[in-house]
Amino acid sequence: MRKHLARLLTVLSVFAALVMTAGTMSPRAEAAEPRPQAAAAWNPPANLVQPLDEVWRHVESTYPNLYGFRNYGWDHVMANRGSINYCVRWESDAPVSAALRDRIHAALKKQFGKWMSAMVDNGTGHNAWPYTNVPVNIVGWAVKNRSTLQWTDNSVDIYTGLDSGGAPQCLPDCGRFFHQDGNYSRCPGGAARHYDQSLWLTKGFQGGAGGDWGQRVGSEYFTGALNQENIHIYLHEVGHTFGLDDFYDWSPTGQCCFLMKAGSAAQITDFDKWMFRDFWRHMKSRYGL
Ligand SMILES: [Zn+2]
């Protein structure tokens, strides 16, 4: 699976906003689990019922391993009991001050939190979602040359290893993508320093990529958008991390414009929110909910 994903990345990374969703990430064919019963807590606005149903049927027919795949963002949050750990891959020679590091962390918290907020209504988790707040920790940074990172404190682990393509990579021993069984015994900091997702910031990278491994966008784009209310390419890619699909070649009935239809919206819309909730609805039974 790693090799498969790496090859896909190499081939596809020239395209803007490529998709790296469940079916492509896990090519193994497995029998689909039975469709869960629709929950009583499912109450989307009436005008969204049909398009949401169209989306779910499309997802089910596109990704044979939809129900067997076990590394969605949902699985990360649930495994951690309500938090998420990130590692930043800084694929750039632009220096990063402690202040910039902290601003990146603050932006990541805010933006990731927008998706998590979509699961909460009036202080209560939607449809048995257990967490009204999901803390975002950055446990490490990866960089080619340590001197690019200008801080000297020990608040994050720093990695200078490279992946097979020469990009800075956080230690695989600490990564959920590489240890989906949750065994981080070879991670120097143990489970507390594991990372579920990478925020991969690449100099000159156009568009974005997202999947169970995290999200990749341009370093200039992300640092240039730190003050924006919505870092929308990042938000779109997080949608993929949680299993949401692209809409390059079709639109659900009545829905022209939403974040997961790249280029048509620059924030999480009501339709995105309900697609997100629908994904959870269809996955929650794996957690006994
Ligand atoms: Zn996409």
Automatic annotation (TrEMBL):
<protein>
    <recommendedName>
        <fullName>Cellulose-binding protein</fullName>
    </recommendedName>
</protein>
<feature type="signal peptide">
    <location>
        <begin position="1"/>
        <end position="31"/>
    </location>
</feature>
<keyword id="KW-0732">Signal</keyword>
